Amino acid sequence: MIDTTLLIQLAQLGTIAIGFLGVAVTLRSHRRQMHVQMFIEFSSRFHEVLGAMPVHVWMSFEGGGSTLPRSEELTKSCLQCFHIVANLYHLHKAGYVSQELWKPWQRGFRRTMEGPVLRQEWLAVEAAFSHLPDFCGYMRGLMSEKTALCGRCPHCRQIAGHAGEE
């Protein structure tokens, strides 16, 4: 026969285990909610910036590489876009942006930076980001055609500027 003290202790232990499980589920749920909020916020920022850019910026990928004449408004919009990318890049490197969020954004960044207009603008304003050498290398890598694993960030597939870098 099990005495009542042992039964009470088992019940308390079960209650503690269920409490820890509840805390773990809550933390996981909170983390997922934060990722969704981050995705929505940065997507909204990109939407605003992209809406301010001329359509030609997004339509000239497969063309022959025609560019727009540089203008203050285009440069301002591109700078805003590059700052958003820089923020996401550093949040990802610090572990605040999960791999699930980073992958689709990175594919979009790469596709966008393959266009001649944004290449032209990045090359013109890169000096404004000289205090972020890792980010400048990342952006130059996005403009290259070779893809490889970057040793600096073990959690993501980075675009490397050198063929054969692994």
Describe, in plain words, how this protein is organized in 3D.
- There is one protein chain.
- Helix content is 67%, strand content 0%.
- The chain has a domain at 36-143.
- With 166 residues, it is mainly α.
- α1 runs antiparallel to α3 (72-93).
- The model is unreliable at 146-166 (pLDDT under 50).
Helices and strands, in order, run as HHHHHH
Note the overall shape: rod-shaped
Low-confidence stretches: 146-166
Protein structure class = mainly alpha
Q: Roughly what percent helix? A: 55-70%
Q: How is the biggest beta sheet arranged?
A: none
Using the CA coordinates, give the radius of gyration. 23 Å
- Please give the alpha-carbon distance between the first and last residues: 65 Å
Number of strands: 0
Query: How many DSSP helices?
Result: 6
Mean pLDDT: 78
Content of β-strand: under 5%
Which features would summarize this protein structure in a list?
disordered C terminus, 166 residues, mainly alpha, single chain, 6 helices
